[in-house]
């Protein structure tokens, strides 16, 4: 369950992310157009300490870009390379916001969702002490099964990232995750094809749909090393 507070954010998520996003090698879209939100989905942190949210955004008429974020109440040790910035949350206080591909909590949540056939977290908004269900604007699902094993990942697992055309590749322990930054693009499809298993199949993956994308798109891949 993802608990969401009705709060003011300064700067807003898009205001915080936009300058960083335009500097990424995989950015696509009109560089002069404002960033707009398309959809979003969340994962649970079992410890209840880290907010995990993936934004789907676009610049002008450009393609949809996938931007996973984590929100923390203190800096992530060793996470400076992935820090996007801080914002003030009127309920929770200062929040350190990271490119989630460098955050072990997100990597563990994504791997678990993929391997065990999980979905996005149910979202509940705190309205004067009552929890009100809110429909997620994107629906995602892992391709695995509930009884599947998940590679052991922890906060001490060595983690590295590298950007490739249209994707970010994360290596953590015995697992490689490919986060498709431009889902559905030719470069994303190339990433999927390049990651085929020895038998020619697609590795375990996360796929999703949203309002203007009713056809399911692969969003991330999980590959055992």
What is the average per-residue confidence, as pLDDT, rounded to a whole number? 91
Domain count: the total is: 1
Q: State the low-pLDDT regions, or none.
A: none
Order of helices and strands: EEHEEEEEHEEEEEEHEE
Pfam families: Mak_N_cap
Protein name: Maltokinase N-terminal cap domain-containing protein
Biased composition (Low complexity): 145-160
Region (Disordered): 141-165
Keyphrases for this structure?
mainly beta; 6-stranded antiparallel β-sheet; 3 helices; globular
Can you walk through the features of this model?
- By secondary structure, the protein is mainly beta.
- The protein has one domain.
- Helices cover 14% and strands 43% of the residues.
- The protein contains three helices and 15 strands.
- It has helices spanning 13-22, 104-115, 186-194; strands at residues 2-5, 9-10, 35-43, 51-59, 65-72, 83-89, 93-99, 123-127, 130-134, 138-142, 159-164, 167-172, 175-180, 205-210, 213-224.
- The strands form three sheets. A six-stranded antiparallel beta sheet has the order 2-6-7-5-4-3. Strands 10-14-15-13-12-11 form a six-stranded antiparallel beta sheet, with helices on both faces. Strands 1-8-9 form a three-stranded mixed beta sheet, with no helix packed on it.
- Strand 6 and strand 7 (93-99) form a beta hairpin.
- The longest helix has 12 residues, at 104-115.
- It is globular.
